[in-house]
Amino acid sequence: MITMGLRAAPKAVTFAIYDSAEQGLVNVEDILVPAAFQFPEALKYIRSNILDVLRMYNVEKAGVRTTEPVAQSPSIERIQIEGVIQETFASSTMTGYFAGPIALVCSALKVDRTTFKPMVKQGRNDLEVEGWDKMSEARREAVLCALGAVNA
Question: Is the pTM here over 0.90, yes or no?
Answer without folding.
Answer: yes
